[in-house]
Amino acid sequence: MLNAYHTSEPALQIEVISPKIQGVGSKRYVEYTVKMKTTLPVFNSTESTVQRRYSDFEWLHKELEQADTKIVVPSLPNKAWQRQLPFRKDEGLFQEDFIEERRRGLETFINKIAAHPLAQNERSLHAFLLEPEIDLSQYTRGKVKH
């Protein structure tokens, strides 16, 4: 039998795809589809697809930084404050090239985290990848129980 941790394909693959602008006016935001496939037994599902926005990635980053682990959390793509200024001659945060650049950065971020064996046991990563909505009233920081 093949060991899930020693296969030719990565045991955990994550794609950040299909960015869509949601909302109107000052309430606009970009939502990304996050698709996960895994053979790792620590996850209770082998595939999942969830919708996440930049603030959800920020939440995961903060949770992992505050967790009692030895994980060096990679940086997120920057917040792009200058793109949020009024009176721009372009779409700012909603420019297609910026959205694509951020999508690639978010995909790199989540894959670096997911590749770390200690992060794979963190509840925050499981909630981020598997829960349709991250429900903070039900969430507690810590390790996943096997």
UniProtKB/TrEMBL annotation:
Ranges where the PX domain occurs: 10-136
CDD domains in alphabetical order: PX_SNX3_like
Membrane topology (UniProt): Peripheral membrane protein
Highest taxon in the source lineage: Eukaryota
GO molecular function, one term: phosphatidylinositol-3-phosphate binding
Protein location: Cytoplasm; Golgi apparatus membrane; Prevacuolar compartment membrane
CC per GO annotation: early endosome membrane; Golgi membrane; retromer complex
Record-level GO BP terms: endocytic recycling; late endosome to Golgi transport; protein transport
Keyword Protein transport: yes
Pfam families documented for this protein: PX
UniProt keywords, alphabetically: Cytoplasm, Golgi apparatus, Lipid-binding, Membrane, Protein transport, Transport
The family this protein is said to belong to: Belongs to the sorting nexin family.
Function (record text): Required for retention of late Golgi membrane proteins. Component of the retrieval machinery that functions by direct interaction with the cytosolic tails of certain TGN membrane proteins during the sorting/budding process at the prevacuolar compartment. Binds phosphatidylinositol 3-phosphate (PtdIns(P3)).
Cited PANTHER family: RE52028P
The name this protein goes by in its record: Sorting nexin-3
Organism for this UniProt entry: Adineta steineri
